[in-house]
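sry for the spam today, last one i promise. struct tokens for design, 124 residues
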């Protein structure tokens, strides 16, 4: 399907609005784990926490998202601080002694599971 320039501009505006006024405010700052670092992202549709274990891949994704928003949309200090908390958590708790990443850790960073998923490495 071919889009006109007007349609592309409308789509861009729609998705930017959804991201910045719906998606990001739903997740942040509520998902930043102030106690242990990283993010508490296992949430129900109403925002309530379902589980406090942390999947490493989504820790990386949330870190990337906040850093990218800071670098490309607006230099909001809370986005930079959130990205730093995620980055620090990943570096402190999500790598095993062999340099491979864990797949799943507890809220405070203790390993639960280690799998060899290639895509995990793309977040670092």
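last one done:
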């Amino acid at each position: 399907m071919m889009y006109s320039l007007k349609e592309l501009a409308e789509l861009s505006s729609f998705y930017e609005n959804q991201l910045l006024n719906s998606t990001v405010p739903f997740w942040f700052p509520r998902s930043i784990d102030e106690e242990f670092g990283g993010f508490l992202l296992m949430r129900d549709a109403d925002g309530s926490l379902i589980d406090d274990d942390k999947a490493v891949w989504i820790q990386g994704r949330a870190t990337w998202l906040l850093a990218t928003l800071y670098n490309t949309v607006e230099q909001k200090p809370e986005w930079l601080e959130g990205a730093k908390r995620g980055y620090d958590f990943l570096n402190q708790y999500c790598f095993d002694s062999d340099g491979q990443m864990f797949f799943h850790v507890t809220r405070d960073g203790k390993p639960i599971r280690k799998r060899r998923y290639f895509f995990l490495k793309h977040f670092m």
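Helices lie at 5-27, 56-72, 77-93. ok im logging off now
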